[in-house]
Amino acid sequence: MNLAVISITDITTWARTSGLEIVLFISGAIMLSRATRWIGSAVTSRIDAKSADGASLVRSESAKHSHVVAQVVMWAVIVLLYCVAAVLTLQRLGIPITGLVAPAAVIAVALGFGAQRIVQDILAGLFIIAERQYGFGDAVRIAALGSEVGVSGTVEEITLRVTRLRTVNGDVVIVPNGQIVQVTNQSRDWARTVIDVPVPNTADVNRVRKLLAQVGRDLCDDPSLGPLLLDSPSVLGVERLEVDTLHVRIVARTLPGKQFKIGRELRARIALAFQTEGIHVSTSLDTIDPIGAS
């Protein structure tokens, strides 16, 4: 009977001391992690809002990088909080931390062999962030191992392990950083839209060139689209000849990520101008815009 009373007393005493501390550690880690997520979301939202409210029509490279760094720091802090809570909990449970050093070393070596891909993903993520290969909101095409074509989309999230893309169809694609073999960034510094306009070989080439040049000037003078252009669209001339068609190339240099919008508008204006002038183009309009562009 006395042993039962002593056991109950010991359990009660442990619950009031170490047990309560364990509950506080776990609760504190959960609350602090939620606060960290809230602060991280607030910081990234402020970065995006500041970038959107600025005079620039596109996100700056520093804003993209700051967004990524804020996300990575947020998740690093959360992992650190849970690790500290786990160590303190083990101490309150009476498990000697120093006694776990040797088993932990063995487990670390085993994980090093069994989780090489995870380590590779994290190291690749560090280099992606440090080298600013791409950032939040960039339009990119990523070629991963086992993929011949690659996937195109807008970067929604970058962590140390994975990159998450949103394709033009709305699909979410998650690519492990260690599997990335090539990245094509379509939103860095400046961009270019290239359009090869097919016209009948009987058409007056000089007339077509003047018409395309006028379309480019009108687009450059447009108050809403003109600021997206870095210079007036240029007509390079005949790009290639076919049996009954010749292709005249027009190019426009734009702000990063705006080449798709300018390209769509150029095609529409060219088609309208040709209809007005009575020039009948073929049903296909060849372009060099990347697949999956938005």
Which outline best applies? elongated
User: What is the rounded Rg?
Assistant: 29 Å
Q: So what's the oligomer here?
A: single chain
Largest sheet, in brief, is:
5 strands, antiparallel
Cross-sheet strand order for the largest sheet:
4-3-2-1-5
Distance between the termini: 77 Å
Q: Helix coverage percent of residues?
A: 40-55%
Structural class: alpha+beta
User: How large is the count of helical segments?
Assistant: 6
Please state roughly what percent of the residues sit in beta strands, choosing from under 5%, 5-15%, 15-25%, 25-35%, 35-45% or over 45%. 15-25%
Which architecture of the largest domain does the CATH hierarchy give at level 2? Answer: 2-Layer Sandwich
Task: Outline the low-pLDDT stretches.
Answer: 290-294
What would CATH call the class of the largest domain? Alpha Beta
* Structural domain tally: 3
CATH fold-level label of the largest domain:
Alpha-Beta Plaits
What pattern of helices and strands is seen along the backbone?
A: HHHHEEEEEEHEEHE
Mean pLDDT: 79
Number of strands: 9
Structure, briefly:
By secondary structure, the chain is α+β, with helices and mostly antiparallel strands. The protein is 51% helix and 20% strand. It contains 6 helices and 9 strands.
Descriptive tags:
294 residues, alpha+beta, SH3 type barrels, Alpha-Beta Plaits, 3 domains, 5-stranded antiparallel beta sheet, 4-stranded antiparallel beta sheet, 6 helices, 51% helix, elongated, disordered C terminus
